[in-house]
Specification:
The complex is a heterotrimer of chains A (288), B (362) and C (263). By secondary structure, chain A is of the alpha/beta class. Chain A has 7 helices and 12 strands. Chain A has 2 domains: 211 residues, Rossmann fold (3-Layer(aba) Sandwich); 54 residues, Ribosomal Protein L24e, Chain: T. In chain A, the strands form 3 sheets. Chain A has a 7-stranded mixed beta sheet. Chain A has a 3-stranded antiparallel beta sheet with strand order 7-6-10. In chain A, helix 1 packs across helix 2. In chain A, 49% of the residues are buried. With 362 residues, chain B is of the alpha+beta class. Chain B has a 4-stranded antiparallel beta sheet. Chain C is an alpha/beta fold and 263 residues long. In chain C, strand 9 and strand 10 form a beta hairpin. Chain C is built from 11 helices and 10 strands. Chain C has a domain of 72 residues. The chains are: A alpha/beta (288), B alpha+beta (362), C alpha/beta (263). At the A-B interface, helix 3 and strand 11 of A face loops of B. Chain A: Catalyzes the breakage of the C-P bond in alpha-D-ribose 1-methylphosphonate 5-phosphate (PRPn) forming alpha-D-ribose. Chain A: Its EC number is 4.7.1.1. Chain A: Pfam families: PhnJ (PF06007). Chain A: InterPro entries: PhnJ.
Chain lengths: 288, 362, 263
């Protein structure tokens, strides 16, 4: 089999056109879920087919692509998707956040602030923020249409009544430009503030559910909360054990069967850059 | 002139002969051997073993060959054969913690003791048809490295050390045996797991998927998925200790589900469990999600009326041999019943039409 | 809605709800036919009749759960049937309320009592947890539910408590018009009496306008200012409650009244 059998970035141009129309509509109505005719892709549903289709529709031969999963460039699914685009489009790839023109991500927003001209593509499993309050699509679409979001706040109220705080740690719902309630994909709520007023274009693709939505640059994105229980971005109360950073989102790694743990930046490019700049953590090779 | 239909016996014999011919296909093409099926269609063999509840790759391969690749038909053959086997003894519980793993992944930790081992997985293959296989290309040998020999503890055990996951109370009770006793409801968890272990993969998958989409959501992560071989041991009364009699391949999935808890009760993760014969990854993950959804009552959750929460619905419909038999029986002759209905409908129609007539006239 | 407010100030003395020739059919069968009445602010209208008389069909047409096949319906001078779905739903969660016969139909059984009462507040924009909780606590008190039950789910409540909770959930946003469908229906007699007492107090204190459907004449005797008697989809008699009950004119009303033990 030869790769020339496929069009640039796998999808044919008609499909890309359909995707671009959906993307433009999504950008014109921020936070609104635009239905699109999702295609069968050569990876399974739930593994980023939505993100891959959005990336394929945006990719040009001069782009530089970065793919992360859980913040890391070297996780298996990130490697797989990056290879897929290398193979089908031949574009340049990079791990450096600042150098990338398109970043496809699953579950994280890079630590380094994005800049104008960059596109962040999110893989989305369940695009509907109201889905777990109301399973029926016909009803949730009506709730969005009529801005009936009282139920969403009932959920937050119940969390506080039960746990003393909102017990949603990821996929924390946001309101976009005072209109649509949106699921930011399963990013930790630590990342929610980065959604707001970002200079980059943020695109969200849900392949299995056939939905695309978007945040154009400099969009106002507010995490839902109560006046007296304001939203708080949270993370593990540690510094990175490799680069010492105290403000980045951390992964917990179990290091032996006694349950010993270490904490490391989930954003591998960010951590490696800091280490190269001489920052050290508790378990850095030199420090140990 | 009308002749009453007879000769059922001859028809059946002829049908069977035709079936055998169709099964063999074009005689100019080499016949499949059982060994070929066992080695090259191993995942089909695994599914037939799992749903047939009989661990014997050669018999499963034979069933697949005989069933012309219809896997439910093959499961049926295995179940029917299984009925004829005498039961000598029951093994001691297999210890999956000491499994020789081919594959072991956790979605909840980036790294962990024993490591993430991808094993022979489709996960990161791009689903592009490999036309080289059409040309009968030989696969290149996979690189090898020596086993690390490190212990591979269960992820749930690690979470358990910190009290982060619900404790699983030890029980020495002999579970009820679905293959020897009729299903009685309500079922305890052991019985539910037993039924799910041999349940139809497609049905289990669809139910698990429905929970992910909000019909009985359990917020599941794959805490750990492991595939490998475990020793099977039996206690011999004459010896007074257990002896290893062989190995079987198993797939185990432990899902870690979002916490319950309240103001007074500290939150904890909860568990779903799947264990399936052979390498049957999709099935074991599905099983663990359905198991977890069925535990709503015990964990104090709401029954939102989702299919996956309904024990009776799930257990009564998960067996594909029961299902396919009953479904397909409606193609058997029913003309005696049908004749009765036919006459009834004719009579009712005649009455209704007669009743309408005077109005039409008026 | 702006248009509605403007008209509201212009027509303070006008009826709150005006029904003209309302009809609803189920195929060839009549649900209710040619029903007309006006409801004025602060007034309680009782609709009585046996099962199948069309009273529930009428109520669901008035509350917007079903669309009438003919006739007009205006609220504060606004044609309700011409409202868009969004406007209609906004009306349902602000100005109007609906108390179901079965509290399970009107409550979220998986949500705490406080959340049930708070939902309508949040639906109209309340975003202060403490204030929502205080209001909910206050309302639980007004319907005689102990404050410490605020985090319990309705499934842990008795039938009478569930019904009182449903009433609190409906009245918390101070609606102007409340529809009630057999609100004492499924309850024990002693529980019914207590609930009726509570309802009467709330209706008076809040100056609510109410349309209440029931087959129980004792309920309308206690609550309703005016009465409509329905039979086979038609209104057969209407008037002041005491007048209709003490001096029924229509044969059917006479039958209804005489079939109840006089207390």
């Amino acid at each position: 089999m030869t790769d020339q059998a496929y069009n640039f970035a796998y999808l044919d141009e008609q499909t890309k056109r359909m995707l671009r129309r959906a993307l433009l509509k999504a950008l014109a109505v921020p936070g609104y879920q635009v239905p699109f005719a999702s295609r069968e892709m050569p990876m399974p549903y739930g593994w980023g087919t939505g993100g891959v289709q959005v990336t394929a529709a945006c990719l040009t031969p001069v782009d530089r692509l970065k793919v992360i999963d859980q913040g890391a460039d070297d996780t298996t699914n990130a490697v797989s998707i990056r290879r897929f685009f290398q193979r089908t489009s031949g574009v340049a790839v990079t791990e450096a956040t600042a150098e990338a023109t398109i970043i496809q991500t699953r579950h994280r927003i890079p630590e380094q602030p994005l800049s104008e001209g960059q596109i962040l593509v999110y893989q989305v499993p369940i695009p509907e923020p109201l889905r777990f309050l109301e399973p029926r699509e016909t009803e949730t679409r009506k709730m969005h249409e009529l801005e009936e979001y009282g139920l969403m706040h009932v959920k937050l109220y119940e969390d506080i009544a039960r746990h003393g705080e909102v017990s949603t740690a990821y996929a924390y719902p946001v309101k976009v430009e005072g209109r649509y309630v949106m699921d930011p994909s399963p990013i930790p709520k630590f990342d929610n503030p980065k959604l707001n007023d970002s200079p980059a274009i943020q695109l969200f693709g849900a392949g299995r559910e056939c939905r695309i939505y978007a945040l154009p640059p400099f969009t106002k994105v507010v995490s839902l909360d109560f006046d007296d229980h304001p939203f708080q971005a949270s993370k593990a109360e540690h510094n990175c054990d490799l680069c010492g950073c105290g403000t980045s989102y951390l992964d917990e790694v179990i290091t032996d069967d006694q349950g010993s743990r270490m904490f490391v930046c989930s954003d591998t490019d960010f951590c490696a850059t800091r280490q190269a700049e001489g920052h050290r953590g508790r378990l850095s090779p030199e420090a140990a | 002139m009308y002749v009453a239909v007879k000769g059922g016996e001859r028809a059946i014999d002829a049908a069977h002969a035709w079936l055998a011919e169709e099964r063999r296909g074009d005689l100019a093409i080499a016949e499949l051997s059982i060994a070929q099926i066992r080695e090259q269609l191993a995942l089909a063999v695994n599914r037939v073993m799992a749903e047939g509840s009989l661990y014997d790759p050669d018999l499963a391969a034979l069933a697949i060959k005989q069933a012309r690749g219809d896997l439910i038909e093959a499961v049926f053959l295995i179940r029917a054969y299984r009925t004829t086997l005498p039961r000598f003894t029951a093994s001691t519980p297999v210890d999956t913690a000491s499994m020789t793993v081919d594959r072991r992944v956790s979605a909840t930790f980036k790294d962990l003791p024993g490591g993430q081992i991808l094993g022979p997985t489709f996960d990161y293959t791009h689903r592009l048809l490999d036309f080289a296989l059409m040309a009968e290309g030989e696969a290149p040998a996979a690189p090898r490295s020596p086993a690390i020999g490190e212990a591979v503890p269960h992820v749930t055990e690690l979470l358990d050390q910190d009290g982060l996951i619900e404790a699983e109370p030890f029980s020495d009770l002999t579970p009820r045996d679905l293959t020897r006793e009729p299903l009685e409801l309500p079922a305890d968890r052991a019985l539910r797991l037993q039924a799910l272990a041999r349940a139809d993969e497609g049905f289990t998958l669809a139910l698990a998927y429905s929970t992910q989409r909000g019909y009985g959501r359990t917020h599941a992560f794959v805490g750990e998925l492991r595939i490998g071989r475990v020793a099977v041991e039996v206690e011999l009364p004459e010896l007074g200790f257990a002896v290893e009699i062989g190995e079987i391949e198993l797939t185990e999935c432990e899902s870690v589900n979002q916490f319950k808890g309240s103001k007074i009760e500290p939150p904890q993760f909860t568990r779903g469990y799947g264990l399936v014969l052979g390498q049957s990854e999709r099935k074991s993950i599905s099983m663990s999600l359905v198991d977890r959804a069925l535990r709503w009552k015990e964990l104090g959750e709401d029954n939102i009326g989702a299919p996956a929460q309904d024990e009776e619905f799930v257990l009564s419909h998960c067996d594909n041999i029961q299902a396919t038999g009953f479904l397909e029986h409606i193609k058997l002759p029913h003309y005696v019943d049908f004749q009765a209905e036919l006459e009834l409908v004719r009579r009712l129609r005649a009455e209704a039409i007669a009743a309408q007539k005077p109005e039409d006239a008026a | 809605m702006v248009m509605m407010e403007r008209q509201l100030s212009a027509q303070a003395a006008a009826p709150l709800l005006s029904v003209q020739g309302l009809s609803r059919y189920y195929g060839a069968r009549i649900g209710c036919k040619d029903v007309s009445f006006d409801l004025y602010p602060g007034e309680v209208m009782g609709i009585v009749g046996e099962s199948g008389s069309g009273k529930s069909t009428l109520l669901s047409c008035l509350a917007g759960h079903q669309r009438p096949d003919a006739g007009g319906l205006s609220y504060n001078g606004v044609d309700v049937l011409a409202l868009s779905e969004a406007e209609r739903r906004r009306l349902l969660r602000s100005d109007w309320a609906y108390v179901h016969q079965n509290p399970r139909d009107g409550l979220r059984m998986g949500v705490s009592a406080g959340g049930n009462v708070g939902e309508r507040l949040m639906a109209v924009g309340a975003r202060h947890y403490g204030q929502i909780r205080d209001t909910a606590t206050d309302w639980l008190g007004r319907v005689e539910i102990a404050a410490e039950r605020i985090d319990d789910r309705p499934s842990a409540f008795s039938g009478g408590m569930q019904q009182r909770l449903q009433i609190a959930r409906n009245l918390v946003t101070a609606p102007k018009l409340v529809f009630m469908d057999e609100p004492t229906g499924g309850l024990d007699v002693s529980v019914q009496a207590r609930l009726l007492d509570l309802l009467r107090g709330l209706v008076r204190d809040l100056g609510l306008s109410v349309v209440i459907v029931t087959h129980d004449l004792a309920v309308v005797r206690l609550l309703a200012d005016r009465l409509m008697v329905m039979k086979s989809g038609h209104v057969v008699e209407a008037g002041l409650t005491d007048q209709v009950l003490d001096d029924p004119q229509h044969a059917y009303t006479q039958l209804l009244v005489s079939s109840v033990l006089q207390v």
